Amino acid sequence: MKDQSCAYCMRADNPALLDAFGIFICQLSVSDLILFKEQSHPGRCIVAYRDHVSELTELSDQERNAFFADVARAARAIHAAFQPDKVNYGAYGDTGHHLHFHLVPKYKDQFEWGGVFQMDPKRVTLSQDDYSAMVEKLKANL
Regarding the domain with residue range 15-140, which homologous superfamily does it belong to in the CATH classification? Predict the structure, then answer.
C-alpha cells in the first residue's frame, strides 16, 4: 500500500515530493537508492525500502536480510566511489513513517568528523551536472 504523502512511495507518481530533497539513483533488490541533495558529506545517500512499512519489525527475516543486503551494497558503492573514512548509518522516521536508512560518509578532515551528523545542515548544494556525476560514480560501483 502506498502513502500518498510519502516521497518514497510516490517517487514515480509525484516526483516533486522526492525532488525536494533527493535524486533517484536506481532500484536495488528490495529498495531504492537515492542521492541526498544536501552534500556536506560527499556521497550521502538514502536506501528506502520499496514497500511502505514503518518499522524493521514489520519485515520478515527474509525481507529484513534483503534490505540490509541493499544497505551494505550501497555502502560498498559509497566507499568505492568516495573513499570516506567511515560511513554512518541513521534510521529515523518520526515524521516520515517509511523505512529508510541514511548512509552518511564521514571524512576525518571535513565537516562533522567525530560528531553526530546533522539531518539537513543546508550547507552544500551542487549543480545538476555535479549531481549527475555523483549518480554515475555510484552506479559504476554498485
Answer: HIT-like (3.30.428.10)
